[in-house]
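Sharing in case it's useful to others searching the archive later.

Someone asked me privately for the predicted structure of Putative outer membrane starch-binding protein, so I'm posting the question and my answer publicly. Question first, with the sequence:
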Amino acid sequence: MKTNTFKHTIYAGIAALTLGLASCDSGLLETVPNDRLSEDLFWKTESDAKLAVNSLYTDLDSTTAVTWDGITDLAHTNQSFNVAAYIEAGSYDATSSVIYDEWKRAYRGIRGVNYFLENVDKVPSTNTALINQLKGEAKALRAYHYLRLVGLFGPVPLVTSSISIDEGRALTNTPVEEIWNFVEKELTEAAALLPTTYGAADKGRFTKGAALGLLARADLYAGRYQKAADAADQVIKLGIYNLYDSYEKLYSYAAENNKEVLLDKQYLKDVYQNNVFNLLAPYSQKNAQSTYVPTKALVDTYETLEGKKITDPSSGYDPAKPYANRDPRLKFSVFLEGDALPSGITFQPRPTSSTADAIGSTYIASTTGFNIKKYINTEDFANPTNSGINIILLRYAEVLLTYAEAKIELGQTDATVLAAINQVRNGRTDVKQPSVTATTQAALREIVRRERTVELAFEGQRLYDIRRWKVGEQVMNGPVYGITYPDATGKLVTVQAASSDRVFDAGRHYLWPMPQKERDLNPNLKQNPNW
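And my answer, the predicted structure tokens:
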């Protein structure tokens, strides 16, 4: 059983910063608030500082990372009444709750970091290395939030200190380049303050490698390709990360804290749990919710074992046996017809199967006939809302692909680019796709983009990739399709999952609107174009 101390102390940190202390003062009028800690009682010990920074990790992405792919071409928001479904349909606006919730969570995290950095030096400590480490963690966490905000909303307000309500009402939009500059600065400073590794009790904290890996991601998003390649190269040269041997087991309890993970959101059953099993598993598995389900568009992206597209006439692809002879990452990422489910039964999604997972059997069953397999573990079947599986937010495979993509965009298509891509394609015991040998920028660009799509499916990167590649109007318009199966006459039929088509308006959907609640409070906050 896992007993990661850091997971326990995150929970303790939240409690310490939100629960009050009973007053020992006999004076009835000199009471201590019972819903918070007074600053006079806190910031006294190194333990206070650690508890404070622990609490900042709660606003990291978690299962929400899957949500991002649920509103792209890779997955479908399964129930039409889910707020994310309105984003698929293009019918959302500045009042949509999902828009405001993401804004609020990010700025809540930023506010916590600002407060921490303004107060941590009050702690009387001679352990400079510890205090610097905690500052590095806080800076990296703040950069994480701004990276997300600028990717979703663009020119958001850059707030780097605690502010009053009146000051908040005077904030204006900060140019995107200025935010990227800040993120670069924060992560560079954080990397200099953070250790490369921790002991077992502190697994899950930001490390130097995590800060540099996040810097590589940020610079890739920003189109600063040389800096992205340099940061990724620094991670590679640390020599402490590598691909986990098995892609199939990468998202299992046995693989937690493995050599591929740079950053994850840490959980612990019964103490600090998530509901990823209940969120994603097929309906037959204890009435799980199938909230986001894979699409045919994603499934068709996986190559054959020979490294050919299924649209290639020479690939040998058989539409009647669509999952045979395919890149193993497909069966490791997606529940396919005939797969064994955690309960021991067989996944049978065809509309004619008369099972709980049959398309149309209930509004909760997958409407595409596919379900997400990543993070679905038999250990969670007994209590689907009490999962303790860690959610991976940054791993070494992404760093390799970031390095390759940045070098490709720079026109530096040398042997290191092929080596990075091919390590992802065949560097594991259970994924052995043929090495690529292309040398032109156009061919390599297509290859690395496909690798990001299939390697990182359901890990929250696709939405940002679509936006920075400017391919939304190509991949996010039109019907959502699912499985292909033979009907009673033997004719192959492809399921159309949604009653209405996806809609992506290139004139405005590359950025979310600034939340209306924020603009009501602050008229100085300018709205994004065409919203």
